[in-house]
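Q&A log
Question type: sequence-to-structure
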Amino acid sequence: MLNSVGAILLDTRSIQKYVFSCNRLKTNIGASYLVDSIFSDLMVNKILPSFNLKMPEFSWNEVKNIQMLEDDSIECEVAYIGGGNMIILVRKQDTDTIELCKQIVGSWTKEILIKAPGLKTGAAIGELNIDNEHFQKSLGLLYKQLKDNQNIILPQVDVPYVGFTLECDYSGKTAEYLKGRVKNNIIYEFDNRMVSAEIVAKSSAYNVVAENLKEEYKDILKNKYDFVSKFDNLGYKDGESYVSIIHIDGNNMGIKFASCTNMQERKTLSLRTAEIVKKGFRELLKSVIDDIEENRYSKSLDINKIKNKYLPIRPIIIGGDDVTFVCAGRLGMEYAKRFIQIVSKEYLLDEVQYINVQNYIKKIFNNTSMRINSNMSCCGGVAIVPAKYPFYRAYELAEQLCGSAKKKSRQNDESFVDFAILHGDMSPTLEQLCIQQYEAPEGYLHYGPYCVTQEQKDKSNISDLFSLIEKIKSVPNNKIKDLRNVLNEDNHSIVRFLENCPEVENILKSELQKENVVANDFWQYMTNEKMLKTRYVDAIELIDFSLNSRL
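Response status: OK
Response body:
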């Protein structure tokens, strides 16, 4: 039985900053591809073959088993790629395996400076027991070494300023190209601007991504539809100009992977996660095209843009349990809900894995009440922002909103989604936004996060939110505006409003199933919370960011 082998643990650092540092959609998409390709393409197809090590006949994701456990002649194998990490197993007779691993990492990082300038990576090298007995401990030591290296080593991945240099108009780094000129190729979209090697590399990668997406989804797109390369073509109406950035992340994935007792289990879980996410986005894409062909967007979007074959949704990151896509502002909450509902129907953990996770939680956290879902569960953040808003800040907000949803899901592993709407040039963190917009004399004006997969007694389910939105749409515009204002005032103002607005009074009665209602009924305590909150401000804010809005 194989015990320990040489192992390389690779990591990409500050991925979000690298991918979303520019406000050009093409550049962001190309950057996402570069992050993925340094593992799946550069390392697998170029670096490892150059060392003449015997590898499995098939790609790591085409075979479920760890081949080293079955074939003693295999000298190198990719065990795992996912979540910004890669694990490579190495063994070679009469060779210093650790030194060989160092040479592999050195060749890889040197190539990254050319292929993906500006991208920071990390590495840890050691021995890994890939069978059951000491697997978790040896893998933990590798991750500790990786973290220690990240704290000590600050890689220099950019050409430094020397003498008189010009600054890139997009990244602020040293400009190295005019118009993005690379040998005999010119990227004309940069006009006469000076650009850095990083921006040129990202933008050049976009064409590869576009072709790959067409190939991957050709059975769905059918040469009839295409993904946008500019935010302006997402389909929002003139005068609205809002986009939604949706970030979705799997729940408790660190615990689920840490509970794996050997490398085989870890690989199986990784492959299953990627399969669920890719299948989920395909199903979401099918539903979007069904909407278009059923003319569901005629009142919500600019149909002329859709008639040009552009879809109102654009994937940026679809990898592992990490998903980021953009869409027209009105569609963000709807698409987030759909995707989460689709993937939550898929099983993630088999019976053995489920038992391992439960045992791990009891052992490490001494927690017997924490519930883990055997199906895929995830949380999402939806940042609805002006199309010209800095993309990186919008993504950061979406990530913070996803984190807010995850806090709600930790104990029961259910799927939640949270949202925020920004107007103008404001650029607060989520914490600042909550203080500025949601604190009121009578309570808190934001009711989220909203559960996507289970009914909630306190009506914090997303279906209850959408239902309330539809009811409020029947109220005259001026009354909706007044309701939004009085909920931010004292109780006396709310009492007076309710006395003079029977339409809202009837909605309140319907929601609470009560014959008589008072001003205090706008507020309620959520389960396990001590702060009074109202559902009505969220519903009002989303009226203009939902399908079939009357505006």
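Response note: The CA atoms of residues 27 and 203 lie 5 Å apart.
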